[in-house]
Specification:
The protein is mainly alpha-helical. It is built from 17 helices and no strands. α3 packs parallel to α6, α6 packs parallel to α9 and α15 packs parallel to α17.
Length: 454
């Protein structure tokens, strides 16, 4: 038994290496994403309609983020593996490909936000007050989508090449600025209370500042992936095609995963404004912890990908297995923090009704208990990602979600008289099943692939 467990736990040196690499990335992705969460928390003081509207917009943003992250993830696989192989030229070409494809993916979402703001918000909730607040917010916040996605490409390239602290410093500076702006707005400007438009404008300014900092650093420090503007389109067709082909399943998978979250929000919206707003708070808090977990998973994925790029399959297999021990420790810690901070909901969301706050607290506590199987299942996702095993990722994530998790939830919602808490529990049953599927797919070892060709 001890021998079996030891296969999935690293020694002290290995665990320290993983955590020292992962912690800056975890903090960075949390800080980057927290700009949206800062808006949600600030708007929580403005009442139920504002929270509902901004949550709906953030669900739309999550779909866009899933699409752009697909490109960034695919490019990151190649950057990490070529970095492991020591091929700097290919690292630069992979960065350029990611930059081009990310811009192409972002444009349609910006166009949709520009032309159909009311329809986007009303898809999640038809309350006139929620739709009005959300549409006003979306009309401004859409201007942040371009700078955000470009910053995402740069930060991903930085930590894929080992510069894990730089994105943290940049994003930390920007979030401090954003919190300061929100505090000013919350206390009123010229005696007037802020609206969702003012808070969105502060976010746009923060995103532009973030991109400006990254561009300044790229010009000053000349990282190995840096490229001249004139050379942005100098990408071999076969490499562009390879990244694009890898990105398509990522995109489909992430879109379906985001769509499943949007479906959950829509079902709660059909139950009534009480359930909708309570779940909106819970979903916002859940996104924070998913983001932190995603930073840890990305770090593991980069480390495994670099080992795969070096050509050592046996070492890569061993290393990947041993990351499970530290992953379990991280998931337990995050679960405990999530459960504990449920008591702060009433303080943060002071403008919400007592009924909404009480329901949100209980849902958050249930969410914390289900976070461990979710996180462990996603750990397998990030190992599969390191080797570009997209078929397995789609099976364990999207297909399992839509063929198992969503049907269980939909049956409970529409065919039983289950209350809101049992309804939430039903949505978590699929996470345990997805964990079992991910472990099965990992044992097939289709992810043990050297994409760098060394």
């Amino acid at each position: 038994m001890i021998m079996t467990i030891s296969k999935y736990t690293g020694n002290r040196k290995m665990n320290f290496t993983i955590l020292s690499f992962a912690l800056p990335i975890m903090l960075q992705v949390f800080v980057t994403g927290s700009i949206n969460y800062v808006d949600s928390l600030t708007i929580g003081k403005l009442g139920d309609a504002a929270v509902g509207g901004v949550t709906a917009v953030n669900r739309f943003y999550a779909v866009m983020s899933a699409a752009t992250n697909s490109i960034v993830s695919a490019a990151g696989i190649y950057i990490s593996q070529f970095m492991g192989a020591g091929d700097r030229k290919k690292v630069r070409q992979s960065f350029r490909a990611g930059l081009i494809l990310t811009v192409l993916v972002t444009v349609p979402f910006f166009g949709a936000a520009m032309m159909f703001p009311t329809q986007i918000v009303s898809f999640f909730n038809r309350s006139p007050a929620i739709v009005a607040a959300g549409a006003s917010y979306l009309n401004i916040i859409k201007l942040s989508y371009g700078p955000l996605c470009l910053s995402l490409v740069i930060s991903n390239a930085l930590y894929s090449t080992g510069h894990v602290k730089i994105p943290l410093y940049v994003s930390g500076s920007v979030v401090i600025f954003k919190i300061g702006m929100n505090l000013v707005l919350l206390n009123g400007v010229g005696g007037a209370a802020p609206g969702t438009e003012a808070i969105a404008a502060a976010t746009v300014a923060a995103r532009l500042g973030e991109l400006a900092l990254y561009l300044y650093l790229l010009k000053k420090r000349k990282y190995c992936f840096c490229t001249k503007v004139a050379e942005v389109f100098h990408v071999p067709k076969d490499l562009m095609k390879s990244i694009f082909v890898k990105a398509i399943p990522f995109c489909i998978n992430n879109f379906l995963w985001s769509a499943s979250n949007a479906f959950l929000l829509k079902v709660y919206g059909a139950r009534g404004e009480l359930e909708y707003n309570a779940f909106a708070i819970t979903a916002t808090l859940h996104d924070i912890f998913v983001t932190i977990n995603g930073g840890f998973g990305s770090a593991v994925s980069i480390l495994v990908a670099q080992k795969l790029g070096s050509g050592s399959m046996g070492e890569s297999r061993d290393f990947a297995k041993r990351t499970y021990g530290v992953s379990l420790a991280v998931s337990v810690a995050l679960s405990a923090v999530m459960f504990g901070q449920s008591g702060l909901i009433g303080i943060v969301y002071q403008g919400m009704s007592p009924e909404v706050l009480a329901m949100a607290r209980r849902l958050t506590q249930l969410q914390a208990l289900g976070f461990i199987p979710y996180q462990m299942g996603m750990h397998g996702y990030y190992i599969l990602k390191a080797g570009g095993d997209m078929k397995s990722i789609v099976i364990m994530d999207s297909i399992a979600t839509w063929l198992i998790q969503i049907p269980i939830f939909a049956f409970t919602a529409y065919c039983t008289g289950a209350g809101v808490y049992l309804l939430y529990i039903s949505s978590q049953v699929g996470e345990v099943i997805k964990l079992a599927i991910s472990l099965r797919l990992l044992r097939r070892e289709r992810w043990l692939v050297n994409l760098a060709g060394t």
